[in-house]
Amino acid sequence: MAGCAARAPPGSEARLSLATFLLGASVLALPLLTRAGLQGRTGLALYVAGLNALLLLLYRPPRYQIAVRACFLGFVFGCGVLLSFSQSSWNHFGWYMCSLSLFHYSEYLVTAVNNPKSLSLDSFLLNHSVEYTVAALSSWIEFTLENIFWPELKQITWLSATGLLMVVFGECLRKAAMFTAGSNFNHVVQNEKSDTHTLVTSGVYAWFRHPSYVGWFYWSIGTQVVLCNPICGVSYALTVWRFFRDRTEEEEISLIHFFGDEYLEYKKRVPTGLPFIKGVKVEL
């Protein structure tokens, strides 16, 4: 699937993913169906079955693989909105669902618009790593258990709102970095310099050497603040800090190899943006 972007007309994946994301988000209309007489679970089951049948009817591989992922993320987003406005102790989990689904969908959409040559199904980052999946599952389990035994812990609205601000800041910074870098941005650290690879030092890259990592760092921690998850909050902070420390050093080794003194001068002027992470050490 890595070559799906090269075989399709420019922009077609972006339009397809947006249309199917919005189709999935139409679950927001489900309360209208329940008011019309359908039971909640019956209506949801019929809705999901109808969505999948429609996608199978409209699309064939590889477009179906794109459509079903975007539709799923739209569905999660719509469910998150509904949950956010519910009168239950799960409403902040709805904020989290919206944040998570928008992050993964926008990773694909921005790549499709900004750097279609590197576009693949992996651009959704849904299969980022086993560690990422375990971390997500752990946060859901913690929220569920604490919500059962200490529901008041999940209703600290000012804390969840603070986490949501962190999420919004991180998401905006990361997407700004992706747009600024253009075709230079890639989800995989590049070990070989391409002909079009240039050193980007303008825009948000004039603030931080690694703005996309800074954005993801605060986004990931912010999701746990939204959930008021004390255990995963601390664990996420330590884990993502260590991950980005190693990732930054790995990337900077390549950048020094690509751009030499030009990158070393940039490295002197601009910080990484990540707390207590200075990047790879250079022996003079």
UniProtKB/TrEMBL annotation:
<feature type="transmembrane region" description="Helical">
    <location>
        <begin position="66"/>
        <end position="87"/>
    </location>
</feature>
<keyword id="KW-0256">Endoplasmic reticulum</keyword>
<dbReference type="InterPro" id="IPR025770">
    <property type="entry name" value="PPMT_MeTrfase"/>
</dbReference>
<feature type="transmembrane region" description="Helical">
    <location>
        <begin position="40"/>
        <end position="59"/>
    </location>
</feature>
<keyword id="KW-0489">Methyltransferase</keyword>
<dbReference type="GO" id="GO:0051604">
    <property type="term" value="P:protein maturation"/>
</dbReference>
<keyword id="KW-0472">Membrane</keyword>
<keyword id="KW-0808">Transferase</keyword>
<keyword id="KW-0812">Transmembrane</keyword>
<dbReference type="InterPro" id="IPR007269">
    <property type="entry name" value="ICMT_MeTrfase"/>
</dbReference>
<dbReference type="Pfam" id="PF04140">
    <property type="entry name" value="ICMT"/>
</dbReference>
<keyword id="KW-1133">Transmembrane helix</keyword>
<comment type="function">
    <text>Catalyzes the post-translational methylation of isoprenylated C-terminal cysteine residues.</text>
</comment>
<dbReference type="GO" id="GO:0004671">
    <property type="term" value="F:protein C-terminal S-isoprenylcysteine carboxyl O-methyltransferase activity"/>
</dbReference>
<dbReference type="GO" id="GO:0005789">
    <property type="term" value="C:endoplasmic reticulum membrane"/>
</dbReference>
<comment type="similarity">
    <text>Belongs to the class VI-like SAM-binding methyltransferase superfamily. Isoprenylcysteine carboxyl methyltransferase family.</text>
</comment>
<keyword id="KW-0949">S-adenosyl-L-methionine</keyword>
<dbReference type="GO" id="GO:0006998">
    <property type="term" value="P:nuclear envelope organization"/>
</dbReference>
<dbReference type="GO" id="GO:0032259">
    <property type="term" value="P:methylation"/>
</dbReference>
<protein>
    <recommendedName>
        <fullName>Protein-S-isoprenylcysteine O-methyltransferase</fullName>
        <ecNumber>2.1.1.100</ecNumber>
    </recommendedName>
</protein>
<feature type="transmembrane region" description="Helical">
    <location>
        <begin position="16"/>
        <end position="34"/>
    </location>
</feature>
